[in-house]
Amino acid sequence: MSSTTQYDIPPPNKELDNIESAKRKAAFRAVQDHFRSEYRFVGIGSGSTIVYGVEAIKHHLTINPPPQGHLNWFVPTGWNSRKVIEQAGLVPIAFDSLPGDAMLEVCFDGADEVDAQLNCIKGGGACLFQEKLVATRSKRFICIADYRKQQDRLLTKWPSIPIEVAPIGHVSVLRELELLGSKNPQLREHTLAKTGPVQTDQSFYIIDAPFPKLLTSGDVESGQDGSGKDGKWEVSVLADRIKRITGVLEVGLFYGMDGDEAQAAGMKGGQKPVAAYFGMEDGGVSVQNSPGRQ
């Protein structure tokens, strides 16, 4: 279920087109609903949308200063998000510098596509492994996007699943993906050919694997076969199968439990967001909550 509301935010520093304005409005609404000045550790994702999330957090802290002596730490999901944090005058902390028992109160990140059950495709910006690390260390993952990313099923408009792989194994992984039904999976390369494959912060490669539109668990419950037969895969089944390929570090499908569900089950964080905020063409913000938060 989604709700659409108008939300007043401070004017931007420069003129924005409709899509960028939609991202910014979604970011400010998400931060208003889910960020608190007393939070100690907060995750910050990658991509153009999160620039506005950091702007919104900075604005929040300006008008709602943290308690005296309190320090907010922001955990980036990659080099780029660390720079965004620093440029805003906020304090970054590396994921592997977190105290062992510390959980992030919340993380804000974008997505390439989000389905009706809040499963996500992520990794278009080549940070999927660190994004998943941060999401699963957070009590709640909040997704921020624009209206183009909201679809009933994954791979509706976004063309492929990003997969982070060991360089030495990428040819074998490509072959295994073809056997799973991916049509022409490709090693992601820089636009300037002589610079070679895109490398992640882990010095791994990214493969972009097209598949037919993915089924949800609801589709399977209604009788559809999501086991891969006839090329039809349910999100979690395909993700688990790809993850088992030798050479794969992580797959850019965020699925399974969200943070609230994981903690209720005695675990830590989950991969799925508990809510997704979509900036809409009409200037409003559509909020899609997980079923347990309706």
Strand/helix succession: EHEHEHEEEEHEEHEEHHEEHEE
Shape field: globular
Spatial extent as radius of gyration: 19 Å
Oligomer: single chain
CATH topology tier name of the largest domain: Rossmann fold
Mean pLDDT: 94
**Total strands:** 15
In percent terms, what proportion of residues is strand?
15-25%
User: Mind summarizing the main beta sheet?
Assistant: 8 strands, mixed
Q: Which class of the largest domain in CATH terms?
A: Alpha Beta
Question: How are the SSEs ordered, and which strands pair?
Answer:
Blueprint: E1 2-5, H1 18-34, E2 41-44, H2 48-63, E3 73-76, H3 79-87, E4 91-92, E5 106-109, E6 113-114, E7 120-121, H4 128-136, E8 141-146, E9 161-165, H5 170-179, E10 186-187, E11 205-209, H6 217-221, H7 235-243, E12 248-251, E13 253-254, H8 259-264, E14 275-279, E15 285-289
Parallel strand pairs: 2-3, 2-5, 3-4, 5-8, 8-14
Antiparallel strand pairs: 1-15, 6-7, 7-13, 9-11, 9-12, 10-11, 14-15
Notes on the structure:
- The chain contains 8 helices and 15 strands.
- It is globular, with a radius of gyration of 19 Å.
- Strands 1-15-14-8-5-2-3-4 form an 8-stranded mixed β-sheet, with helices on both faces. Strands 10-11-9-12 form a 4-stranded antiparallel β-sheet.
- The protein has 2 domains: 2-152 and 255-293, Rossmann fold, CATH 3.40.50.1360; 161-252, ACT domain (Alpha-Beta Plaits, 2-Layer Sandwich).
- The relative contact order is 0.18.
- Mean pLDDT is 94; it is low at 1-7.
- Helices cover 28% and strands 19% of the residues.
- The protein is α/β, with parallel strands linked by helices and 294 residues long.
